[in-house]
## 1
Amino acid sequence: MKIKELRIGNIIIPCNVLLAPLAGYTCYPFRILCSELGAGLCYTEMVNCNALKYKDKATQKLLFTTPEEKIKAAQLIGSDPRIMEKMARSDYFSKFDIIDLNMGCPVPNVFKSGQGSALLGDLKKASSIIKGCKKSEKVITVKFRVGIREDEMIAAEFAKMCEASGADMITIHGRTRNMMYHGTPYFDQIEQAKSVVRIPVIANGGIFSKEDADKMMELTGADGVMIARYAIENPFIFSELTHKKIKKDKHTIIFEQIDLATKYYDETFAISYIKRLASFLMKGKKGNNKYKTELYKSGNMPELRDILEEIFCKEREKD
Ligand SMILES: Cc1cc2nc3c(=O)[nH]c(=O)nc-3n(C[C@H](O)[C@H](O)[C@H](O)COP(=O)(O)O)c2cc1C
């Protein structure tokens, strides 16, 4: 795919390969890693506006960042336009340059409460959320799916609504809410949406290789791609796509992530994040199941380091 800079509102991002918001993964250390590997923009995981409103500590932690992170992008989820606006304008986001609005999450509890992908069925409300959040004077992006069900796909209509309401960029996950995380994305839906708006359109869904990224760009005409699950399995996809020379392997990466996670978060958070990340990074390797059990059994950081040394040293020998 052709790598280029992208202008999002008044912000220029260095390249058009983005890291998706991923609950449980895209904390500060992982965003720093992916930026270093070449990702042009890295979002926090979704942050619930109601939880923020009630000053929930765990939710606030998701917004941790430092000046080291050059362009700061957070994702907000909610269904009440007034609360969404209030939170977007609050001090919680004062350090952030970009706020993404989640209009794609398919999870049953989220959907039932009118949040995430439920907004695909209420364009009026979705529009007033975008307009309200825009008053924060931040750059506003929207991430949505192509529809709730396959017999009612609305990507182009929704894209036009986002643009008319003030969104500076949209990311379209080419699957419907009913498809959850499986099946081939509807490339034609993304293509149609791209053809009716002038703001940048990022295509997401099912990119698990360089070839998939090329195909996504070719079939949709999108301005860039966003990678989710494959980024936690193989973060080097960013350096591969952006032709960035990186002298690191997964062993180096996992230990750097431990250092960052323990520096900035408490041990409980760091341990559970590292376990989750490691089990993705070791995907497809021999002896995976045995190591995974040992990985999840480890109760403290020294134990975790020992088992990770064993897992990722083995990998080094193979490489
Ligand atoms: C574990 C997990 C957590 C996710 N968390 C979020 C999230 O917080 N916000 C969001 O917009 N999408 C979230 N997603 C959806 C991804 O950003 C992405 O749209 C989806 O996985 C499709 O991309 P992929 O096929 O490259 O994985 C999540 C997906 C997974 C698998």
## 2
Amino acid sequence: MQPRRVAVLGGGPGGLYAARLLKLANPACEVRVYEQGGPDTTFGFGVGLAAGTQRRLEAADPDTLRDLVAAGLRHDMTMQIGDAVAEVHNDRLIGIARTELLSVLQRHAEKAGVVLEFGARRTAGELDADVVVAADGVSSATRESGTFGGRIQVGRGLYLWCGTDFALDAAVFAPVETEHGTFVTHAYPYTGGRSTFLIETDEQTWRRAGFDATTASLEAPGTPFEASDETSLRYLEQVFAEQLRGRPLIGNRTRWLRFRTVRCDRWAEGNTVLLGDAAHTAHFSIGSGTKMAMEDAIALVDALAEGPDVTTAFTRYEEVRRPAVERLQELARRSQLWWESFPSRTGLPVERLMVAYMSRAGNVPLDRFAQTGPDVVGAALRQYGGGHPPADDLVGWVLDRPLTHGDRSFPTRTAVPELERLWVDLHDPWSPEGDALVARARGTDGVLVAGPAARPALLTRLDLAERVRLETGTMTAVEGSAALRDDLAAGLVSGRTDLVALSEETA
Ligand SMILES: Cc1cc2nc3c(=O)[nH]c(=O)nc-3n(C[C@H](O)[C@H](O)[C@H](O)COP(=O)(O)OP(=O)(O)OC[C@H]3O[C@@H](n4cnc5c(N)ncnc54)[C@H](O)[C@@H]3O)c2cc1C
């Protein structure tokens, strides 16, 4: 049975897109969106929409995608350390203002016949409908008051979301050292006259710069809701003066935050179903929050169209979306750990750092990146091993390079000597367990970092080996299945390990 009345709580990208698709799929259904804010009172700057997302949106609703692409700005990607810059071309990565995104989605929802109600905060329980889609965002009251088994994990690092009054030429990742520690920007243009300028740092740097105090002062009673951390913005304008070309940073309720990763045991309860940030979040460094919310909308509407009843449809929606969401959350978890430990790697040449960035979560193989970013990968390989690899065996070439480490020389990266064995079987290399393993490696003349054969465990021990190299200077060899030689090669070029020990184990 198709629902006759659907109420959507929350007019963010997830809620608006779900409303339009529902109405298109089932024109007889009455669909209403309830948004607490006004039609144009959103906060935030731009968000990114990558090629894969655009393809999925195109298949679901080409009209909306066309207007989103028209409102967005395509950009390349650069990594900058001091004066050194590495640039990667990207044909279809666009930035779009959140205001524009919402205005396109509002327009298309209304065109399809959706009724939009603004300006009143509602609860899922008070909405009279056959189906309630709770797209009420990361702080979802529906999730918090329901029995969805919601859990929130708070990140170690701190970030601040602000903007600029000019469009950068390309996306920029740039660390800057200060007397207090390292700040890193992730910035990208999203219209002719604006860029998102997100800045991240670690807790010690944040405290040394006095931002724990400015953050606390903004929490004092009587502070206007829309106030930004102006002290931090003025300080960071100086830190990033070069990237900002001397222009100011613009705040918009801008305060230091710690990223909250939301997970839920269940996404549906009775006639209510969670969608988007209300159900799950993934660290901003993989730029996937909007994508996940809109892809949830596509899957939910498909599931409802298949019927036969709401409960079955909710089960199917969750079966389809949960594996994809959990995969992205795992990529995002690795990416978050990489960014939170970023300052330790800024000694790498910028091209090798770009390779490390692309391979941080294990989803971009080295030879694929060599096709999309041949100049950067070519330079990184010359820095790593001298010369040019043959086009047909890049990975073999990486493994066959010689190494000189202190007074020891090795004919290839797979020629591993007798070393102390360090067994690594953990989830987070920067946890106290990881600290203890790094301490064990200190003072030895090299460690063989071994562990379970599965790929996730290998990626984690490459990260742990990198910590050992960077924090202790001890030589590392990472053991891994020969079937995972692509990951091991990416680890070598990225400076995660000095040597690799290939095993015949099945990954
Ligand atoms: C720093 C940062 C950078 C990001 N960068 C990117 C990026 O580059 N690319 C990307 O894709 N994503 C990015 N995101 C994530 C993205 O902003 C969100 O994931 C996305 O907006 C989620 O959409 P949503 O519809 O689920 O929720 P939201 O966009 O949060 O919308 C929820 C809506 O519900 C409304 N609401 C809440 N409660 C009620 C209520 N009780 N009654 C009525 N209305 C209610 C809210 O006002 C809001 O409008 C970023 C996020 C952060 C924090």
